[in-house]
Amino acid sequence: MTTPRVFIIRHGETEWSLNGRHTGSTELPLTANGEKRMRATGKALVGDDRLIVPSKIAHIYVSPRRRAQQTLELLELGCRDKLPWEERRQHSDDAIRTDAKVQITEDIREWDYGDYEGLTSEQIKVQREKSGEGSWDIWRDGCPGGEYVDLTNLPSIAVHEGDAVGWDIMDRLDRLIKDIRSSFHSKAIGTPEGEHPSGDVLLVAHGHILRAFAMRWVKRNLTEGVHLLLEAGAVGTLSYEHHNIDEPAILLGGAFMVDAVENTGQGG
């Protein structure tokens, strides 16, 4: 039976991700090493006998930030249509591997770090100690001048004038999850294998927002803290238990594809 998945893909390495600086709206390209590693990821994980099978992808969501879009390009999924930011498709008809549409959405843009944009966690810690604000946990405290997790659950927060509280983190993630399940997964889950060829969904975005997405996928409150890691260029997998859409789960690891192992062994 079919159990569709969501692949969460963090953009490749940038200068700021390499240095631990919080990068929200700032536009930065991937480093040369980041580009190299994303190309390698595409070759290793994308293919008919790989983790991400292009023909099984129903839809692709990508952040508005250029670093996420560049990452998607480097994976070389072979979309039939041109990418939304391209004037024309960059590959030939022979390279087409998926009919999935690519949608740019603000729902998975990175956290608005506000006053903490461009700072490292250590710099934020020192800044808050000097101002007498105490320790900082983004899941608990949010970002002054930027976004908070969920004000309804945090009545003690002193919101600064101009803070972007309208973009409630959990609201936008829950909206996206609802769209994925109603538009794509509900149609595929539980069907006989092969009867519904596409159902998987890709998200290409950022570290904090994708970790938050994974928590909301399994209905966890972000204010409890998110004890998950997602390195630059990393790929995570979310799915369901028992082929049941009401039992969302984080897939910690999957078995190797037999064909992929055999094909690697036959290589010259």
What is the number of strand segments?
A: 6
Number of helices: 8
Strand content of the residues, in percent?
A: 5-15%
Going by helix content, strand content and strand pairing, the class is alpha/beta
Can you list the strand order of the major beta sheet?
3-2-4-1-5-6
Point out poorly predicted stretches: 153-159, 161-166
Instruction: Give, in order, the helices and strands.
Output: EHHEHEHHHEHEEH
Fraction of residues in H or I helices: 25-40%
Given the C-alpha coordinates, what overall shape results? globular
Largest sheet, strands/sense/barrel: 6 strands, mixed
Q: What is the radius of gyration computed over CA atoms, rounded to a whole number of angstroms?
A: 19 Å
Termini, distance in Å? Answer: 36 Å
Mean pLDDT: 89
